[in-house]
Specification:
The protein is of the alpha+beta class. Helices cover 33% and strands 17% of the residues. Helix 2 packs across helix 5. The N and C termini lie far apart (43 Å).
């Protein structure tokens, strides 16, 4: 097991690019993305893993970046909402009013992307299970569910 103390220099692979960062060993991935790299898509909501606003992909799997130490991500592929290249995903959310205030939107986009990568034609139960990891206080989830259904139908 590697032990990190004080300040640490790491190479991180984020959205296909490599960044060298120097940070505290205790810094979360959310903090590093937002403060060191200027990638503000992942939002600092609850900062205890409940809301999902900070969701990013770590080697293709959704994680709450507020709960992950940056030092544990060295050598892994990190993808944020800024790194999602499927414009159909964003367009479906826009057309089906999946966004209102937009605060939770990046987490939902990342999680939906991962859902459709893992389950190209998910049933309602699978969609519900995946959506449970993200909270929205504005939309009531109907627009989000419609956006996912639209994506499934157009695949």
């Amino acid at each position: 097991m590697k032990v990190y103390e004080g300040m640490v220099s790491l190479n991180l692979r984020v959205n296909g690019e490599t960044y060298q960062v120097t940070l505290r060993a205790a810094d979360t991935l959310l903090y590093t993305l937002r403060e060191a790299l200027g990638l503000t898509g992942a939002k600092a909501g609850c900062e205890n893993g409940d809301c999902g606003a900070c969701t990013v992909l770590l080697d293709g799997k959704p994680v709450k970046s507020c709960m992950v130490l940056t030092v544990s991500t060295e050598g892994q592929d990190i993808r944020t909402a800024e790194g999602l290249t499927d414009d159909r995903l964003k367009q479906a959310f826009i057309e089906e009013q999946g966004f209102q205030c937009g605060f939770c939107a990046p987490g939902f986009l990342v999680n939906t992307y991962a859902l459709l990568q893992s389950h190209p034609a998910p049933d309602d139960g699978t969609i519900q299970e995946w959506l449970a990891s993200n909270l929205c206080r504005c939309t009531g989830y109907e627009g989000i569910k419609k956006a996912i259904s639209k994506l499934i139908q157009n695949t």
